[in-house]
Amino acid sequence: MRKLKLQVQMTVDGYIAGPNSEMDWVTFNWDDELKEYVTELTESMDQIVLGRKLAQGFIPHWAAVAQNPVHEEQSAGVKFTDTPKVVFSKTLNESEWDNTVLAKGDLVEEINQLKNQEGSDIIAYGGATFVSNLIKHNLIDEYHLFVNPAAIGSGMPIFQNLDSKRNLKLVKAVPFACGIVVLNYEPKRD
């Protein structure tokens, strides 16, 4: 069975965006070691799942990067553009993007169908509501929490919808020179 991995930027106080979706706290000057960590993580997957709100910015951004031969992240743009994507939406009737299909059914059923398909792992990037629901339904197999050196006091959390305690097992904690610490957890499943 394929694993569903979550990669998400967050603040030390647990928010993945400010109250109005602000991302001005994110550290962008990544060091080479962090870039390598992300490369290894993305090389292990062959499908991306996203919520509609994030998809509307994420997919066009990376498509533009992929088409810019002088952009320092062009190879990442090509990877994200060429990788098949599934966008979860209750409001869109058809995909507006290449290499992307919509999932409009039950989240748990749709994710489990994807996990049972042949292939490499799946990565989830967000947004907040979508990720919160993945966590609530215990669908994440690996957490890769990119904790940025900032606290913002309020914003969009991803662990607020839990109806019971979730125990996680720390796989590794990796500090990077740019100030980000990646916390890699797996759920403890009985």
- Average residue-wise pLDDT: 93
Number of DSSP strands? 10
> What is the radius of gyration computed over CA atoms, rounded to a whole number of angstroms?
16 Å
Helix content, binned percent: 25-40%
Assess the beta-strand content as a share of residues.
25-35%
Order of strands in the sheet with the most strands?
5-4-3-6-1-7-10-9
How far from one another are the termini? 17 Å
- Look at the helices and sheets and give the structural class: alpha/beta
Outline the low-pLDDT stretches.
none
Identify the quaternary structure here.
Answer: single chain
Number of distinct helices: 5
- What general form does the structure show? globular
Instruction: Give a quick account of the main beta sheet: strands, pairing sense, barrel closure.
Output: 8 strands, mixed
Order of SSEs, N→C? Answer: EEHEHHEEHEHEEEE
Features:
alpha/beta, eight-stranded mixed β-sheet, two-stranded antiparallel ribbon, 5 helices, 10 strands
Structural description of this entry:
This protein has 190 residues and is of the alpha/beta class. Helix content is 28%, strand content 29%. An 8-stranded mixed β-sheet has the order 5-4-3-6-1-7-10-9. Strands 2-8 form a two-stranded antiparallel ribbon. A hairpin with a 5-residue loop joins β9 and β10. It is globular, with a radius of gyration of 16 Å.
Task: Characterize this entry briefly.
The chain is an alpha/beta fold. The protein has five helices and ten strands, in the order ββαβααββαβαββββ.
